[in-house]
Amino acid sequence: MDLRWWAVFIVGAVALGAAVALATMVPMDRITRVLRPLAHVDRLTGMPEYARIARIQFWSMLITLILLLALFGTALLTTSRPIGLSSASRNFEAVHPEDIMLCVGQPVTDPTTAGFLNYFAQHVHTFDTQRIGLTSPSLRVVPLTRDDDYAAAQFSRFAGLASLQHDLDTDKKLAGPQADELRAGINDFSRTVTYDDYVRSVQDILALCMTGFPSFDDKSTRRRSLIYLGHSRFGSPEDTRAALFSDQQVKDMAAAAGIQVNVITRADINNSTPEANDALTAVASASGGRASVYNPAGTAGDSPSGTDPTLAGLLDKIRDNPPNVVLPSGTIITRRSWDYPNVPLIGSLLMAGLLFLSLAVLRR
User: Fold this and answer.
1) Strand duo 98-105 + 131-135: pairing
2) Which helix (H) or strand (E) holds 345?
3) What pTM did the predictor assign?
4) 283/292 Cα distance (integer angstroms)
5) CA dist 174 to 112, 157, 170, 184, Å?
6) For the segment 70-83, what is each residue's pLDDT rounded down to a tens digit?
């Protein structure tokens, strides 16, 4: 839990401490009048009825003091505007659910692609209000959906193609159904398209993935997150054919639609260049996302259908930095701006009710 107005909480706590110190340190006025002496006081105080009344008085004073302190504390928390409670996060996610578009810019048979898809196949079952989708360089493979079982099944299906391709590349024969599964999976994931006057770029793939969000050209009350995995550039530097989208156009699209762009580029690709990585980093930074360079050498090949811990760590960091809400008016709403005083307010009412009942019982 965090507080928006820490100054209010600090002032209130200091005032409480000062009041307690004042009450304990300042001497009380002595009673100057002469009290009437009583005979056999020891007999009176030794009676069971007197001892019972004394215990009731002591515990009633202690309970009243605890309830007063609890009431003051919960009222102080409510006044300080608490944020960051788990209940507030659940309420925030219910009002502003998240859309996640996975964007793959490399072959589906790559072991890194398998690890990427396996990660989300395992985590999709933990989703509550989120929708998730998958886009390849040429197809909308899985449209945004809240059907977790369907999404997990599709991710697992495509992730399994890397293992089949690995067996084929190591001169292992595939049975007829396995060969058909590999062929159909590759075809369902992406199509090979050749052009004479156009060369595909990473920016084009990012733009294609962005169009997978409903009403992508406008902001939404839903949070939007795009996670790209793949090459930082395609083709050779000598290829002078034009692409469709530039870096600035992708930034403008992300800003107009309120999309957080996260990129994980490959460091082991020959045509990867620092300039291309820097361009994608700039796109991610402008949208509030994360950019990382990943080298699967010596890890991904050991388990073609598993998720490398390094890749899983990068994805965890992305998921730990969810996008904010960007309303059509341009207002940005975050978890920190989502006040949720319900818990301390309910506590204050409960303490006040118990204090009222305890005082009523004492009066009787």
Assistant:
1) parallel
2) helix 342-363
3) 0.70
4) 12
5) 22, 17, 11, 14
6) 888 888 877 877 76
